[in-house]
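Hi R.,

Here's the chain you asked about this morning:
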Amino acid sequence: MTLLDEIETAIPALRRYAHALTRNRDEADDLVQDCLERAVARRHLWRGEGEVRGWLFRILLNRFRDRLRSLRLRPQLLPLESAGGIGQAGAQEGHLALSEVHAAMGRLPEDQRAALLLIAVEGLSLAEAAQVLGQPPGTVASRVARARESLRRMTDRGETISIQTQDRQR
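And the predicted structure, written out as tokens:
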């Protein structure tokens, strides 16, 4: 399989990761396109070490961070249409719980969210995620653990988990 074939195979995973990072489908598509343009233009820099998917995730994450830095320099206005769900009642409790977790993910520090998404959503191993993030595996493991603990606190899921564990022990 050629490098371009491997890049093409990774597009769905890149789109999932970008959407989870940006929380906006249009921004995610732009981010993936930017990532793919950079990867194809600089494919001569691919050393052939590790998986192409990890290399692409790293490019995507770096482009995401670049965009965050540029947005901090200038405020961005959102169109009124993007507030579509204001005033609508939720259909199910599960949907509300998912929305709560989604909102809590958005409040996580960027480094914790990036690590958690690579491992929990994309299914990368700790070593693969560490390579994508350019950090030691221990750092990534602690960020994932802190992210999960923060999510439990923000969503009040910690008490539910401990109660279920106690019930199973009886």
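Confidence is low (pLDDT under 50) at residues 159-170.

Let me know if you need anything else.
M.
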